[in-house]
Amino acid sequence: MEQLSQPSPRLLCSLIHKFGKKEVENFDKFIEELRSGPTQTVGELFVFVDECHRTQSGKLHKVMKAMLHNAVFIGFTGTPLLKSDKQTSLEVFGKYIHTYKFNEAVADEVVLDLIYEARDIDQKLSSPEKVDAWFAAKTKGLNDFQKSALKQKWGTMQKVLSSRSRMEKVVSDIVFDFSVKPRLSSHTGNAILVASSIYEASKYYELFQQTEFKNRCAIITSYNPSTRDINTEDTGANTETEKEFIYKIYTELLKDVIPSNSKTKTETYEDIAKNKFVKEAANMRLMIVVDKLLTGFDAPACTYLYIDKSMQDHGLFQAICRVNRLDTEDKQFGYVVDYKDLFKKVENAVAVYTSELDYDQFKKEDCDILLHDRLKQGRERLDNAIEEIVLLCEPVASPKSKLDYQHYFCGNTEIPQQLKSTEVRRTALYKAAVALIRAYANISAEMDEAGYSAAEQDEINRKVDYYLKLREEIRMASGETLDMKAYEADMRHLIDNYIQAEDPRQISPFGDLSLIELIVKSGIAEAINSMPAGIQGNHQAVAETIENNVRQKIIKDHLIDPAFFEEMSTLLDAVIKERKDNAITYEEYLKKIAALASKVQAGKTGTTPEAIRTPAQRALYNNLGKNEALAIALHNKIMLVKPDNWRDNDGPREKMVKGAMYEILKDFAEVERIFTIVKKQAEY
């Protein structure tokens, strides 16, 4: 910066990656300091900004303008600037100086034209009753909020994720193309497959390794396998978790890779793969990617782009342009094959890049109006969000301590029904907090421009921080931090087994650990340290948070072993009573509740006979009056006679199991009572 104030040299050029400094506590103060002592420059100063559509919003632009207040800023972008953008570079730079459209580049023979083909692979649920039965079984111990969250997760997974059947169809389709399509069949061209996630990219890679593409296919995602990614993973009843699968694929993939030039194994592997893809099309036929290589990667041999990921706007256009680079004479077009029904989005993206961008329509006054309207709407949205959450919390009893909030939104820990009855309040709080986050994020970098004073900004920052912490405290206190990981493997199993795909047809034009798990694995002290700060400092709030989580676990798993969990519920009530009666010290209470949490998490006590070894045996023992011989006899009988997939909603296979149970129990009512427990055992 000092050089800019010197008269020589007459021409000075510099490349700057970032302006400002890291971890500025008070950004507004930092900006004022820069503005009060701007850089003194000699001569004319021009700043050329590459990729200006994504670098010139928010704090970076403010720092640049404050440091170089008299400079002329000129932006370069390959992305058209649309009036619909939330914060456009147009507001910063003004009108276009020059444009060069995609169709002009094709006409000038700088790039190739594109041929688009959509291919549809229908998926249908082959066994809705199996999915319904799974949800009925899995959600019995959850509250309405948790049930809704789980079903929303399932809906998202079903919509977004591909079944194994569908992915196999895509693989077969691509392999077929390589035998018949131009340049692919002659080994002069290669292709990129865009997957929707690292998991699906890994799954595709595994499937392609079983074809002629073995050792001629690579996966590019920048994922680095680490044991910490999987050491807390709990597998579902049917399959490994997604993290475990990705870890397995990459560990095998990188086992023989030797890192080079201070790079990781992954970086070294990707460099080798990309070099082969560019220079040896016959030896690297297919690259499987998620986000990488879709911009700024030039591989002239790349002729086909297969899209199996939802994309739009400039991201989509940048991706399809990976195949329009000039190569040998036999490459006349770039081909885009779409498996996600993106036709309208592709059409819109191409239209934007080929349409007339009349600079005169973007006048300074238009930009000012656009900016003003956006800031006005952003302020109204933020003010409304703050008002809504404040009104929601207004009924909380004075002095509105953290404990008062906990009682209002969670109820009395001694009365399990109160946690249920206050569920609507908590749901409203969670929604209001999300609305506040979004409204604040939308305008946080432009609070001055929106008309907020410094004092108002400080107050807003305080409220946002306060209510976000409150949300997390209430979620933890109520035990509603549902661990989706425990269900994801099972849901993936449902998708792979009960969603079937048809052949492609062309159509065109706290971390992962729950609070109770943390108590068991790391101890009560670590569990308390993991709680939000607002809870940690209040002994009663800590106690009620732990109690609610233990209670939720008891309710959730009650049907697996009713006798055991009823005993645990009684013990929990006794511990709560001792705490509230001040019959024990806080330290004694923590020891007791930690011991109880460990029992609840394990699903057993230390008094079970040695012969009772498995969870299913324990459930029978506990619910048959702790009759060891009877429990073992019934367990052995069930294991002997149960057919595969015997749970058939009172069908012949279930009746077969009931008949075997009657031979041991000799009582129809007792058979029905115990059968509901037997159905819940994963062991059977």
Q: Which percent band covers the strand fraction?
A: 5-15%
What is the top-level CATH class of the largest domain?
Alpha Beta
How many structural domains?
5
Number of E strands = 11
What Rg do the Cα atoms give?
A: 31 Å
Please bin the fraction of helical residues.
40-55%
CATH superfamily of the largest domain: P-loop containing nucleotide triphosphate hydrolases
CATH architecture of the largest domain: 3-Layer(aba) Sandwich
Describe the structure.
The protein has 684 residues and is α/β, with parallel strands linked by helices. It folds into five domains: 2-99, no CATH class; 112-354, Rossmann fold (3-Layer(aba) Sandwich); 369-478; 515-602, no CATH class; 615-678. It is built from 29 helices and eleven strands. The strands form three sheets. A seven-stranded mixed sheet has the order 6-7-5-8-9-3-11, sandwiched between helices. Helix 12 (313-320) links the parallel strand 8 and strand 9. Helix 8 packs across helix 9 (198-208). The longest helix is centred in the middle third of the chain and has 30 residues, at 364-393. The chain is globular. It starts with 26 loop residues before the first helix and ends in a 6-residue tail after the last helix. Residues 81-87, 364-371 and 508-512 have low confidence and may be disordered.
Keywords summarizing the entry:
684 residues; alpha/beta; Rossmann fold; 7-stranded mixed β-sheet; two-stranded parallel sheet; 53% helix; 7% strand
